[in-house]
Amino acid sequence: MRLICVAGARPNYMKVKPVMDALEERGAEVILVHTGQHYDPAMSDVFFTDLRIRRPDHFLGAGSGSHAAQTCRVMTAFEPLVEQVRPDVVVVVGDVNSTMACALVAAKSGARLAHVEAGLRSRDWSMPEEVNRVVTDRVSDYLFAPSADAVANLQAEGCPDGQIHLAGNVMVDTLLANLDRALAGGILSRLGLEPGGYGVATLHRPANVDDPAVLATLVRALDDVARLCPLVLPAHPRAATRLRGAGLSGQVRVIPPAGYLDFVALQASARLVLTDSGGVQEETTVLGVPCLTLRDNTERPVTLTEGTNQLVGRDPGRIVAAARQVLASPPAPRRPALWDGCAGERIAAVLLASGAGKRLFPAGQPGRHATDPTAGAGQGAVPFSAPSA
Predict the structure, then answer these.
(1) What confidence score (pLDDT) does residue 10 get?
(2) Where are the beta strands (DSSP E) in the chain?
């Protein structure tokens, strides 16, 4: 089989690596496409190095810009490549603009489309990622869900069970495969930190950092938490300037962006993490570290019910109270089912079982173009199930 695997931005690299490895180990021809949505070395190159991802076969050079402009550039660059390569399957991961752009091209090309991390829903339509997730799932042939709640979301939206596969979390594959290397990297000693003697904070979502009033509120909360536990905040120079402009004091230690291995090590040895990142909610759950999510909703509710995460919103009083509580009484570590480091292998097994050159749902059958909104709903998707030919 010939497959294209797409990566475009920092959250994608950790997700595409285990899928690529599992496919290539089974003899598939894998073509890695980097859209260039993230192109800064600190946001791209360091992750390829840390994760030992091979050089991309194609770089599309999409660059930055508005959502529409970026999506357009990815689509116009990816379409001729798909026509040239003629893959059996295009694999997209996550929920960034590159994910949706390449999904739309693949869906119109005749190639089958697989979405890794399907079914996640925040139900917050102000988040660009939510739009990307829903659109990508709707046009996909294979829907690889990381958790049971994601399966339930897909079933409720009418996706046929033959398309839904509870595969587990590919982020966990990458985390478990690299944890020992991360802990041996020495980032704590370089920063003069002691295990269990600090917390980690990250902020990047537009809803939190683009509005000066909201950012100032969060900065005040971080300063107050830092009086309970010293905080380290990795940030690009632009973000650091914005944070200080919002009143961030010396209570929070701002450091340069951390690569994948260094950031995993910082999380693993922290007393708590405060974040607005989706991936960090998952990583802290696997690491057993308390996580406070500075948002009003999450597309990863399994980290609340089966992990170490809490939604605390943006109210400073609530954030500080939650921090005080988890510092005094950390939650017991819990890990969702199938977050075991084998998700990439399950995904590869399903894809390769379908064979080359065959559509998952031929014309006239439910699938990508089904019109019945209840088709296949409620039948109970199962893990590791090969699709019908």
Answers:
(1) 82
(2) 2-7, 29-34, 58-59, 89-93, 112-116, 142-145, 164-166, 199-201, 231-234, 252-255, 272-275, 291-293, 309-311
3-state secondary structure of 155: helix
Instruction: Enter the tokens of residue 206.
Output: 């537009």
Which single residue is written with the structure tokens 């830092």? 226
Q: What is the mean pLDDT of residues 209-233?
A: 94
What mean pLDDT comes out for the span 142-166? Answer: 97
If you write DSSP's letter for every residue of 221-261 in order, what string do you get? HHHHHHHHS-EEEE--HHHHHHHHHTT--TTEEEEPPP-HH
Residue 192 gets the label, from left (phi > 0), alpha (psi -120 to 50) or beta, of left
Burial of 56 (0-12, 13-18, 19+ CB in 10 A): middle
Alpha helices in 8-58 (DSSP H): 10-25, 45-51
Residues assigned a catalytic role: 204
**In the structure, what pLDDT confidence band is assigned to residue 45 with cuts at 50, 70 and 90?**
confident
In angstroms, rounded to a whole number, what is the distance separating the alpha carbons of residues 305 and 245? 36
What is the predicted pLDDT for the residue at 128?
92
The dihedral over CA atoms of 7, 11, 14, 17, expressed in degrees to the nearest 10, equals -10
Tokens 């939604």 found at: 311
The two structure tokens encoding residue 265: 């090590």
Per-residue confidence band for 375, with pLDDT thresholds at 50, 70 and 90: very low
Residue type, 53: I
* Cβ neighbours for 325, distance < 8 A, ≥ 6 positions apart: none
- DSSP, res 295: S
Give the chain's mean pLDDT.
89
For residues 271 and 254, the answer to whether their CB atoms sit within 8 Å is no
Of 102-111, 309-318, 352-361, 374-383, the one with minimum mean pLDDT is: 374-383
- Alpha-carbon separation of residue 210 from 177, 242, 314 (angstroms): 35, 9, 14
